[in-house]
Amino acid sequence: MTDREVLLVPHVGRRANLEATADAAELLDAAGVRVRVLSSADPAVLVEHPVLGRFPRFPHGAEAAEGVELVLVLGGDGTFLRAADIAHMNDLPVLGINLGHVGFLAEWESDSLELAIRRVIERDYRVEDRMTLDVTVRDAEGRTVGGAWALNEVSVENLNRSGVLDATLEVDGRPVSTFGCDGMLISTPTGSTAYAFSAGGPVLWPELDAILVVPNNAHALFAKPLVVSPSSTVAVESNSETSEAVAIMDGFRELPMPPGSRIEVERGDRPVRWVRLDNSTFTDRLVTKFRLPVEGWRGPKPTQR
What we know:
By secondary structure, this protein is α/β, with parallel strands linked by helices. It folds into 2 domains: 5-130 and 271-290, Probable inorganic polyphosphate/atp-NAD kinase, domain 1 (Rossmann fold, 3-Layer(aba) Sandwich); 133-267, Tumour Suppressor Smad4. The protein has 6 helices and 20 strands. It has helices at residues 15-30, 44-47, 77-90, 113-121, 195-198, 282-290, and strands at residues 5-10, 34-38, 57-58, 70-75, 93-98, 108-109, 126-130, 133-138, 144-150, 153-158, 165-171, 174-181, 183-187, 211-216, 226-228, 234-238, 245-249, 253-257, 262-267, 272-276. The strands form 3 sheets. Strands 1, 2, 3, 4, 5, 6, 7 and 20 form an 8-stranded mixed β-sheet that branches. The longest helix is centred in the first third of the chain and has 16 residues, at 15-30. The protein starts with a strand and ends in a 15-residue tail after the last helix. 39% of the residues are buried.
């Protein structure tokens, strides 16, 4: 037995996901790599499983990944983002195997699970850094009332669904425009294919260092997405007479925003360490995940000398 250990983070909502996680656990265990499993809201799902019930289970938190080599995700994008939260706490690499639908954040698909596990066992992978965002909320008097981080995006949303959020967008300490809107999205390049894309934002290649700002259903003439410098600070101020808002990071971490508060977003100090198993390009991933039509493409012709 080695001192190597891996944290498995499964999506336990489907039986097939549990069986895939069990297969991964048995392969790692047989190779002498210790396994621990992130527990779910219903602990009985794992406790009663004939394979996964044998391994230590940890609740969501920094302790779940203390001392492990890698965080291995078996599920879709939502599961990956929750696993990335734990990996980010411990500055650990995270690898996603897609068992969901689109699974844009996953590195490989479920039909290559065994090969992916073999690559982990052999340490045959590389790690890339993905940009994150650091988030601070301040009240109307400028006092800090909360902080968080995001891998995909920060979504500033109005809690009063019958009205709009009156907000002013600011970049580098200067106002850009005031909107009546459903909210504002501030995204990394990694998150540009998620909520920001659905709201009308452009796709940014992950190698690009930039911050994407997308007004969400804004009632304004100037309401186009903006791509700003990675060294910029993007802020959104809510009107003191508007209703309460909330900032949601990656779909599950929340910070309340009382009327008159502001949220400040800048490049994160700590990236997410992203495991890569192959050399496929982001272009190929985009075409595959979104099933884009590329029939008729002939490719560049060889250079003539």
